[in-house]
Write a structure and sequence with these properties.
The protein is of the alpha/beta class. The protein has nine helices and five strands; from the N terminus they run αβαααβαβααββαα.
């Protein structure tokens, strides 16, 4: 591992220790969930852990994760473990928000989002990523600052500045089984288009080399 990568990993480890000690949001249900401190040009930003991720101690550890990693295996030719080893995974909120009164997971409130935004800014500053995959409506809104329908966002790449870092953003739908958007048209076609953009991006090629398909 090059010295620069070692430095990045050590800085990320410090951020993770800060995260693990955070008790800023009383409505959130712990523990804090984060991925490993991976030095990567490619970052996945999710919405928040689900009810199972805390017990597994890693993001995207249940059904939605299996769906998402299946997308990457199909489009990029890489396994879940390869993604976990080589891509930095973070989220708008790092603790499970609990269930909403109408069913499904509760959306983090603005105060909770702001509390975790500090950690996202630190991660962006350390990693200086070239490509962010924003997974789900909340993540897309927070990364791009756009509150539009998925039909207008998925399947496109956006130049953006994320916490002071100039990069590209490819929005992806949330892989939750609760939403059929990515399984029916036009979502199915738009998702495939988005994954092709990911596969062709220089950050993906630098991360996985020639192993991925386009």
């Amino acid at each position: 591992m090059p010295p620069s990568s070692v430095s990045v990993v050590r800085k990320l480890e410090l951020v993770h220790r800060e995260l693990e000690g955070c008790r800023a949001c009383p409505k959130m249900i712990g523990p804090v969930v984060h991925g490993p401190p991976v030095a990567s040009r490619l970052v996945i930003v999710g919405q928040a852990p689900g009810p199972r991720e805390g017990s597994f101690g890693r993001p995207f550890a249940w059904t939605a994760g299996k769906t998402m990693f299946g997308w990457f295996e199909s489009a990029l030719g890489v396994t879940e473990e390869e993604v976990r080893r080589h891509v930095y995974m973070t989220a708008v909120a790092r603790c499970f928000p609990g269930k909403a009164s109408g069913g499904g997971d509760r959306r983090p409130d603005p105060t909770e989002i702001a509390a975790c935004r500090t950690f996202l800014a630190e991660e962006a500053s350390i990693l200086r990523p070239e490509l962010v995959l924003a997974v789900g409506q909340l993540a897309i809104e927070q990364v791009l600052g756009k509150k539009e329908k998925l039909d207008a966002l998925v399947g496109r790449s956006f130049p953006a500045t994320w916490h002071g870092v100039a990069l590209d953003v490819v929005p992806l739908p949330h892989p939750s089984g609760a939403s059929p958007w990515h399984r029916i048209e036009p979502g199915k076609t738009l998702l495939a288009k988005a994954l092709r953009l990911v596969a062709r991006h220089p950050a993906t090629k630098a991360t996985f080399g020639a192993r991925h398909s386009v």
